Amino acid sequence: MARTSPCILGAAALITLLAGCGGTDDGDGGSATGGCDTSSSSLTVEAKDQLKFDADAYEAEAGCIEVTYRNAGSVPHTLLVKDQKGFKLSVGDEATGTVDLEAGTYTLYCDVAGHQSAGMEATLTVS
């Protein structure tokens, strides 16, 4: 009987675990899970190299929101919604994901080290 290397078994287990993760992936490093399938609203956010978004405030309708995140520069960025676990987009050029939000006010931010503290955050009002 052939013996299987522990490295091969570990790699197979990791691939199985990662394959079970939900969400969308645009092939550009962006992925997000939000617990919804059919979007009722859409939102586009653009990241700038000056560690800012293209706006200080955004609006969307409550429910499943399809978020498109575009990078207008060359610095990698992320997009998260504060206190919304499971939603994170990482952008090289563009990424898309969904998030299910109730009416309220939320903070969008980039969690790359130093970006949020430099001002890379915005307000999202959901109605």
What would you note in describing this structure?
With 127 residues, the protein is mostly beta strands. It contains one helix and eleven strands; from the N terminus they run H-E-E-E-E-E-E-E-E-E-E-E.
What are the SSEs and their pairings?
Blueprint: H1 6-19, E1 24-25, E2 31-32, E3 41-48, E4 52-53, E5 57-60, E6 63-71, E7 77-81, E8 88-91, E9 94-101, E10 104-109, E11 121-126
Parallel strand pairs: 3-6, 5-11
Antiparallel strand pairs: 1-2, 3-4, 6-9, 7-8, 7-10, 10-11
* Second-tier CATH architecture: Sandwich
CATH topology: Immunoglobulin-like
Shape: globular
Distance between the termini: 63 Å
Question: How many β-strand runs?
Answer: 11
In the CATH scheme, the class would be Mainly Beta
- What is the strand arrangement across the widest sheet? 5-11-10-7-8
pLDDT < 50 stretches: 4-31
Nearest-integer average pLDDT: 80
Helix content: 10-25%
Number of domains: 1
Q: How large is the count of helical segments?
A: 1
| Name of the CATH homologous superfamily | Cupredoxins -  blue copper proteins
Largest sheet: 5 strands, mixed
**How much is the radius of gyration in Å?**
17 Å
What proportion strand?
35-45%
N-to-C SSE string, H for helix and E for strand: HEEEEEEEEEEE
| Structural class label | mainly beta
Provide a concise account of the structure shown.
By secondary structure, the chain is mainly beta. Helices cover 11% and strands 44% of the residues. The protein has one domain: Cupredoxins -  blue copper proteins (Immunoglobulin-like, Sandwich), CATH 2.60.40.
